[in-house]
C-alpha cells in the first residue's frame, strides 16, 4: 500500500524536463490530497540538521531560571520561552515547552492610526546562558527560508502560475517564525495533548523532528502517524496557500500526541509566511483546476482574512493569553484585534 504521507524528492527539479514535470504533478497531488509530505533531496546536510536538534536539546537542558529569564510574556512580539502548559490550542493547554523565534527587525514606531499588528515586529529574546543558540537558529532560518522559497515557486508552477506568483507578498520582508519544541513524556492518564489539533497559518511549514513519534495528521476522518523518516523534513500546507488557491491546496489539521513517560520528543517547526502588510491574492486558476477547488475551509470560530497582519495577530493573541493581557490589553477591551 502506498504511504498516505508521500516522500517527495526536491532534487527531481534539477533532473531534466520529464522529472521536473512529474515532480510538480506529484507535489500538487500531495498538497491537494493529504496536505502533508516528507521532503528528501533538499540539499541540507545531516550535520546541519543534527546541529539544530543538538542546540535545541542543550537549550531545554538549561536550568529553568535561565529559560524563564526570557519568558515570552516579556515580549510584545510573542518571542521567547513558554513553559509546558503555557500555550493554548482551542482553549486547551499544550504539554510542550518551547522557544519562539521570529525575524530580527527593529520595532515599528507606534502612534494613532498605526495598525495593531505592527507591534508584532521587533527583536527576539535569546538565552545568555547558551550563546551558540542564536547563530545556530538564525542559520537554520536562512536554510529553511531558501527551501521554502524553492517550494513556493514550485507550488506556483504546479498550479500553472508564473514561478514568481507569490513573490510580491513575501519579498523583502517575509514574516517567517520558528520554534524549538520539547514534548516531555508523561503518563497517559495525565492527558495526551502535546499540541492540540490545528492548522498552521502561513504558506508552508517545514518541520524537523527527532527520532520520536507523536505527529499525526487528519486524513479521511482518522489520525495518520507521520513518524520520523531520517534525513527528511515534513512539509505541510498552511492557511495562506489554501486561501490563495481557493482551497485547491489543503491546510490539513494535525496534532502531536505526548510521548510516554521517560521519552521526550524534540521538533523544530519553521513557518514560512507572507509579509505582515500583505493581502493574499486569489490565484486565477485554469478552468480545470478551478473546478476542483473546494473553497477555503474556514473555521467558523476563527474566520480568515486576506490581510495577513490581522490574522497573525489574532492567532497569537488566542494562543498566548498572558502576552495578550500584558501587551495588548487595549485591543482586548475594544475588540480592535478583530477576534
Ligand atoms: O512538533 C511537531 O511535530 C508539530 C508542531 C506543530 O504542529 C506546530 O507547532 O504548529
Ligand atoms: Fe502545526
UniProtKB/TrEMBL annotation:
<keyword id="KW-0560">Oxidoreductase</keyword>
<dbReference type="GO" id="GO:0046872">
    <property type="term" value="F:metal ion binding"/>
</dbReference>
<dbReference type="InterPro" id="IPR027443">
    <property type="entry name" value="IPNS-like_sf"/>
</dbReference>
<dbReference type="Pfam" id="PF03171">
    <property type="entry name" value="2OG-FeII_Oxy"/>
</dbReference>
<protein>
    <recommendedName>
        <fullName>2-oxoglutarate-dependent ethylene/succinate-forming enzyme</fullName>
        <ecNumber>1.13.12.19</ecNumber>
        <ecNumber>1.14.20.7</ecNumber>
    </recommendedName>
</protein>
<comment type="pathway">
    <text>Alkene biosynthesis; ethylene biosynthesis via 2-oxoglutarate.</text>
</comment>
<dbReference type="InterPro" id="IPR005123">
    <property type="entry name" value="Oxoglu/Fe-dep_dioxygenase_dom"/>
</dbReference>
<dbReference type="Pfam" id="PF14226">
    <property type="entry name" value="DIOX_N"/>
</dbReference>
<keyword id="KW-0223">Dioxygenase</keyword>
<dbReference type="InterPro" id="IPR050231">
    <property type="entry name" value="Iron_ascorbate_oxido_reductase"/>
</dbReference>
<dbReference type="InterPro" id="IPR026992">
    <property type="entry name" value="DIOX_N"/>
</dbReference>
<keyword id="KW-0408">Iron</keyword>
<keyword id="KW-0266">Ethylene biosynthesis</keyword>
<dbReference type="GO" id="GO:0102276">
    <property type="term" value="F:2-oxoglutarate oxygenase/decarboxylase (ethylene-forming) activity"/>
</dbReference>
<dbReference type="InterPro" id="IPR044861">
    <property type="entry name" value="IPNS-like_FE2OG_OXY"/>
</dbReference>
<dbReference type="GO" id="GO:0009693">
    <property type="term" value="P:ethylene biosynthetic process"/>
</dbReference>
<comment type="similarity">
    <text>Belongs to the iron/ascorbate-dependent oxidoreductase family.</text>
</comment>
<feature type="domain" description="Fe2OG dioxygenase">
    <location>
        <begin position="174"/>
        <end position="274"/>
    </location>
</feature>
<keyword id="KW-0479">Metal-binding</keyword>
<dbReference type="GO" id="GO:0051213">
    <property type="term" value="F:dioxygenase activity"/>
</dbReference>
